[in-house]
Amino acid sequence: MPELHGYALAVLVAHIKDMYDANSGPSLVFKLTDLAKFYSDTLKGMGVDHSPHTTRLKDRLLAACPLLQATGSAGQDILFTFRKDYDEFVRSSPRDYQMNAF
Length: 102
What we know:
Elements: H1 2-23, E1 30-31, H2 32-45, H3 54-64, E2 68-71, E3 79-82, H4 86-101
Antiparallel strand pairs: 1-3, 2-3
Helix pairs in contact: 1-2, 1-4
Protein backbone atom coordinates (compact mmCIF):
# COMPACT_ATOMS: atom_id res chain seq x y z
CA MET A 1 0.00 0.00 0.00
CA PRO A 2 2.81 2.55 0.64
CA GLU A 3 3.79 2.25 -3.02
CA LEU A 4 0.29 3.39 -4.03
CA HIS A 5 0.66 6.46 -1.84
CA GLY A 6 4.06 7.15 -3.40
CA TYR A 7 2.56 6.81 -6.85
CA ALA A 8 -0.34 9.14 -5.93
CA LEU A 9 2.20 11.71 -4.71
CA ALA A 10 4.10 11.39 -8.01
CA VAL A 11 0.84 11.96 -9.92
CA LEU A 12 0.13 15.03 -7.77
CA VAL A 13 3.62 16.44 -8.42
CA ALA A 14 3.15 15.85 -12.16
CA HIS A 15 -0.24 17.62 -11.94
CA ILE A 16 1.39 20.63 -10.27
CA LYS A 17 4.03 20.71 -13.01
CA ASP A 18 1.35 20.48 -15.72
CA MET A 19 -0.61 23.34 -14.16
CA TYR A 20 2.58 25.41 -13.96
CA ASP A 21 3.33 24.74 -17.63
CA ALA A 22 -0.23 25.58 -18.68
CA ASN A 23 -0.24 28.85 -16.74
CA SER A 24 3.23 29.99 -17.83
CA GLY A 25 4.60 31.33 -14.61
CA PRO A 26 5.23 31.21 -10.91
CA SER A 27 2.13 33.24 -9.96
CA LEU A 28 0.02 30.07 -9.75
CA VAL A 29 -1.42 29.29 -6.30
CA PHE A 30 -2.82 25.97 -5.03
CA LYS A 31 -5.05 25.40 -2.00
CA LEU A 32 -4.01 22.45 0.12
CA THR A 33 -7.63 21.28 0.30
CA ASP A 34 -7.78 21.08 -3.50
CA LEU A 35 -4.49 19.18 -3.68
CA ALA A 36 -5.68 16.78 -0.96
CA LYS A 37 -8.86 16.10 -2.96
CA PHE A 38 -6.81 15.43 -6.11
CA TYR A 39 -4.55 13.06 -4.13
CA SER A 40 -7.57 11.27 -2.62
CA ASP A 41 -9.27 10.97 -6.03
CA THR A 42 -6.07 9.49 -7.48
CA LEU A 43 -6.00 6.86 -4.73
CA LYS A 44 -9.70 6.10 -5.23
CA GLY A 45 -9.00 5.56 -8.91
CA MET A 46 -6.57 2.83 -7.82
CA GLY A 47 -9.13 1.23 -5.51
CA VAL A 48 -7.89 2.78 -2.23
CA ASP A 49 -10.46 4.67 -0.17
CA HIS A 50 -8.32 7.12 1.80
CA SER A 51 -8.69 10.70 3.00
CA PRO A 52 -5.20 12.12 3.53
CA HIS A 53 -4.14 13.95 6.67
CA THR A 54 -3.61 17.39 5.16
CA THR A 55 -0.72 18.42 7.41
CA ARG A 56 1.18 15.25 6.49
CA LEU A 57 0.38 15.78 2.82
CA LYS A 58 1.63 19.36 3.08
CA ASP A 59 4.88 18.13 4.64
CA ARG A 60 5.30 15.43 1.98
CA LEU A 61 4.70 17.94 -0.83
CA LEU A 62 7.20 20.40 0.61
CA ALA A 63 9.77 17.60 0.95
CA ALA A 64 9.07 16.31 -2.58
CA CYS A 65 8.94 19.78 -4.16
CA PRO A 66 11.55 21.97 -2.48
CA LEU A 67 10.70 24.90 -4.73
CA LEU A 68 7.14 25.10 -3.43
CA GLN A 69 6.40 27.15 -0.36
CA ALA A 70 3.35 27.03 1.90
CA THR A 71 1.64 29.98 3.55
CA GLY A 72 -1.03 29.92 6.22
CA SER A 73 -1.37 28.00 9.44
CA ALA A 74 -3.65 25.48 11.12
CA GLY A 75 -7.24 26.59 10.92
CA GLN A 76 -6.58 28.69 7.82
CA ASP A 77 -6.39 27.85 4.15
CA ILE A 78 -2.89 26.62 3.40
CA LEU A 79 -1.73 27.98 0.05
CA PHE A 80 1.17 26.73 -2.05
CA THR A 81 3.13 29.09 -4.28
CA PHE A 82 6.32 28.69 -6.26
CA ARG A 83 9.75 30.02 -5.46
CA LYS A 84 11.43 31.99 -8.23
CA ASP A 85 13.79 29.17 -9.25
CA TYR A 86 10.97 26.71 -9.97
CA ASP A 87 12.05 26.18 -13.58
CA GLU A 88 14.97 24.01 -12.43
CA PHE A 89 12.55 21.86 -10.45
CA VAL A 90 10.20 21.53 -13.43
CA ARG A 91 12.98 20.16 -15.61
CA SER A 92 14.04 17.43 -13.16
CA SER A 93 11.19 16.60 -10.80
CA PRO A 94 8.49 14.35 -12.28
CA ARG A 95 10.86 11.68 -13.55
CA ASP A 96 12.68 11.51 -10.22
CA TYR A 97 9.53 11.20 -8.11
CA GLN A 98 7.84 8.73 -10.42
CA MET A 99 10.89 6.50 -10.25
CA ASN A 100 10.92 6.72 -6.44
CA ALA A 101 7.23 5.77 -6.33
CA PHE A 102 8.04 2.29 -7.62
